[in-house]
Structure to design on (689 residues):
């Protein structure tokens, strides 16, 4: 296999008139956790389906795990693992039967079969629950079992489509630890998510929006590249009136609500701080705190998407 | 690399076995649907064949006595007090008889002619007319039998032993002259069950995988469409064959319907028809994205034609021309004709070859159509 686990150029998929994926280039190095981010309907799943060889591209070409995504789909499929947000397990089967089924369809045999199933049970924390019906498992356990099934055949590349949707925060954290562990052992992980905080776990990310890749790079590079302006966090007594006041003309900067705080993006930190204090004070709103903070990826992506919408 | 290239073009038995095992486990675990597939043929046999028999104790009867002599009264009383009939009324003319039968007020009518007593006294055969509502074929057969028996009894009492019976019953069955009995039901139930198991259950099982997302999971695996279909269908073939055995055994033990023809030819016909229905099941699965739609589509495409357009319940000859033409486009009619021939008449493929050939044509056509559609929809 080449150094690139995923290498595609001009990847395009049309459904009738609609262009779901529009000339995408992706290069993912081996052993990397690659985050493929974007809002729902941006083209994430369509892209992943083309990379997995189950959807024919309308245009473009490339390789996954060294195999041509158009012509070598059968070989390609033996070299990838895939888990979707549905954690597609057979609910009427037990934990063990699901693992045995996946061993069967990926031709994992003999001693390897025993040891891999054992490994998966251990990894998912399901040892002792081999005979439980899959339908009885809670979200986090199902997710880990689905993951175990997807990597039973030790694929060099693992595709994860929204792997953490519908899973509790503790399980999500646990899940990302396992993913990091896989990557350390040399597995390439290609993961889509719309949780921007999760993107921080990735070595590299690409943001897809309306079928196009609008930004790509490491999370820290993206933050500095797209967020040259200062990001101020404002804490004050009356949130909504403060939000309304800061949005009024003349603008202090781009204002967004973030939980119980306001985020203000401004070119000049000092001038903006003064303006915020002055205008909120005039409205009788007490400002508890104004602080420049490190932008999150989400802030960066809001900036990218707003820029690309212009 | 070389090993991969070798396996590249061959179907993998191991993978087929994995799919098959999973499907079996799934079926065996879902007790309700398992019971359904095994009990359904029996309950259908009972519904169509057996239940109706309890119904014939009090056949509503209209009598038109044109003779109005003591002799004719006596015959009528014989019928009324036999316990098998319930007198609806004494009709005054043909129109009243007609109206009773038409409106379902009575299921049988007996018309005694004007010269009844006279004929008896002259020693000539007297003709009594019996009209039977044949729309419910089982009770019609039985009602007809009762009328004949009652009249014969009266007749024998009149003439004394050794003499030729002077009364002749000319019975005519309205609406359904074929009088299909349980004999005809047994092969028909086979046709219906083959469709239910072959088309409906397989369609549901494939669509269930689409609905749950497991289909996608299988598509990204190295399993090929053919392996998946073969693995999924084999368990249903076995269930269908078990059902076939159940129907034939129950047909023989409970209803006394033996197989007159060759068991092998029967099996060949059943497997041909089953192939059609499995193909239809796969076809339906490509049309539907959820189990409800699949169910409805399967019932319309496979089950209804096999019940209504096969000659199982309604004789094809009596159908409006449009429906009769339509029936030629479904394999049901050929199968029902053929299997009745083998089952009841004991004729073989030397007679039934046109039906067998058409079934082969249907099987090949449906399977190749649905296979190519199945591959396309996997995209």
């Amino acid at each position: 296999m080449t150094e690139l686990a995923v290498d595609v150029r001009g990847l395009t998929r049309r459904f009738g008139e609609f262009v779901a994926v529009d000339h995408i280039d992706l290069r993912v190095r081996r052993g990397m956790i690659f985050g493929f981010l974007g809002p729902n309907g941006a083209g994430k799943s369509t892209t992943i389906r083309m990379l997995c060889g189950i959807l024919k591209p309308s245009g473009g070409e490339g390789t996954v795990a060294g195999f041509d995504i158009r012509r070598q789909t059968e070989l390609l499929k033996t070299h990838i693992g895939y888990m979707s947000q549905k954690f597609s397990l057979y609910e009427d089967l037990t934990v063990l039967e699901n693992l045995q089924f996946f061993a069967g369809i990926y031709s994992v045999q003999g001693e390897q079969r025993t040891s891999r199933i054992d490994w998966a049970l251990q990894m998912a924390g399901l040892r002792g629950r081999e005979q439980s019906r899959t339908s009885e498992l809670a979200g986090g356990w199902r997710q880990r079992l689905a993951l175990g099934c997807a990597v039973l055949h030790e694929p060099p590349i693992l595709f994860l489509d929204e792997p953490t949707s519908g899973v509790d925060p503790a399980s999500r954290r646990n899940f990302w630890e396992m993913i990091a562990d896989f990557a350390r052992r040399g597995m390439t992980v290609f993961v889509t998510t719309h949780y921007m905080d999760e993107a921080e776990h990735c070595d590299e990310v690409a943001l897809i929006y309306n079928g196009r890749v609008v930004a790509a790079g490491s999370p820290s590079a993206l933050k500095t590249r797209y967020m040259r302006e200062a990001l101020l966090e404002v804490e004050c007594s009356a949130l909504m009136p403060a939000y309304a006041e800061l949005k009024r003309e003349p603008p202090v900067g781009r204002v967004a609500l973030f939980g119980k705080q306001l985020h203000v993006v401004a070119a000049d930190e000092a001038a903006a701080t003064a303006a915020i204090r002055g205008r909120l004070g005039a409205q009788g709103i007490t400002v508890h705190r104004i602080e420049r903070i490190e932008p999150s990826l989400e802030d960066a992506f809001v900036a990218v998407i707003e820029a690309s919408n212009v | 690399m070389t090993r991969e290239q070798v396996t590249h073009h061959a179907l993998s038995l191991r993978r087929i076995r994995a799919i098959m095992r999973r499907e079996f486990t799934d079926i065996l675990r879902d007790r309700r649907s398992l019971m359904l597939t095994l009990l359904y043929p029996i309950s259908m046999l009972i519904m169509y064949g057996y239940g109706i028999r309890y119904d014939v104790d009090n056949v509503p009867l209209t009598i038109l006595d044109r003779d109005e002599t003591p002799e004719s009264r006596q015959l009528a009383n014989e019928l009324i007090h036999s316990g098998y009939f319930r007198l609806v009324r004494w009709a005054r003319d043909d129109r009243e008889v007609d109206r009773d039968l038409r409106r379902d007020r009575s299921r049988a009518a007996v018309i005694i002619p004007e010269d009844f007593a006279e004929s008896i006294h002259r020693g000539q055969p007297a003709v009594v007319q019996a009209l039977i509502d044949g729309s419910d074929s089982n009770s019609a057969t039985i009602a007809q039998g009762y009328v004949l028996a009652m009249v014969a009894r009266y007749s024998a009492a009149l003439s004394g032993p050794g003499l030729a019976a002077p009364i002749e019953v000319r019975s005519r069955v309205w609406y359904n002259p074929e009088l299909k009995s349980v004999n005809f039901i047994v092969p028909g139930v086979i046709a219906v069950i083959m469709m239910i198991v072959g088309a409906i259950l397989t369609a549901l099982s494939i669509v269930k995988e689409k609905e749950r997302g497991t289909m996608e999971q299988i598509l990204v695996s190295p399993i090929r469409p053919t392996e998946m279909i073969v693995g999924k269908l084999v368990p249903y073939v076995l269930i269908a064959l078990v059902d076939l055995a159940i129907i034939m055994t129950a047909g023989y033990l409970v209803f006394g319907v033996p197989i007159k023809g060759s068991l092998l030819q029967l099996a060949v016909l059943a497997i041909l028809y089953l192939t059609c229905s499995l193909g239809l099941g796969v076809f339906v699965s490509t049309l539907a994205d959820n189990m409800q739609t699949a169910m409805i589509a399967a019932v319309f495409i496979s089950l209804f034609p096999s019940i209504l357009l096969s000659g199982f319940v309604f004789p094809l000859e009596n159908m409006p021309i449009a429906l009769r033409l339509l029936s030629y486009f479904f394999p049901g009619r050929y199968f029902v004709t053929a299997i009745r021939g083998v089952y009841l008449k004991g004729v073989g493929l030397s007679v039934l070859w046109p039906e067998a050939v058409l079934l082969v044509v249907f099987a090949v056509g449906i399977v190749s159509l649905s296979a190519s559609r199945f591959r396309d929809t996997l995209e």
The mean pLDDT of chain A is 90. The longest strand of chain A covers residues 4-15.
